[in-house]
Amino acid sequence: MIDAAVRRIWELTEPLVGNEGLEIIDIDYRREANGMMLRFYLDKVGGGVTIGELTPMSRVLGDVVDAHDVVPGRYLLEVSSPGINRRLRQPRHFREFVGKQVRVRTVEQQDGMRSFLGALSKVGDEGIELEVDEGLRFFRFDDIQQANYEHEFGDKSAH
After folding, report:
1. In whole numbers, what is the pLDDT of the chain averaged over residues?
2. By C-alpha distance, which of 107, 112, 118, 92 is closest to 140?
3. Domains of the chain, CATH where assigned
4. Taking the model in full, what pTM does it have?
């Protein structure tokens, strides 16, 4: 149910966000201590979103979600930047970080592990390839539970 709601929210809001020169990096909808929380992680195309750009989007996104009754009942809405160790959700997000350190958590264990860290070497239609200690390792998008860019402090070429 939650995944279906997030997909629908993404479909409804992506064009509005795009019209403002922003992009949706991730949407998180889950139960927290204070009830259901809906979080949008937005960034400017090319990076560098400001609080002045995020604030008006909060009202717009809340209005769209409410008008389409996508989220049942009460929820809290938060609109934020993706942060330094941003989540990578879509193939285009991964492509921006080729050559950078990425942490992948898989749905199922692979060789007794679910967490992998390595340099992102390739992004294809079906998945990604990481250069880990053991060599190159391929992960299908469907097998990735979560992936994040891992910022390396001191790397002047990092995003």
Report:
1. 91
2. 107
3. 2-80 (3.30.300.70), 91-149 (2.30.30.100)
4. 0.77
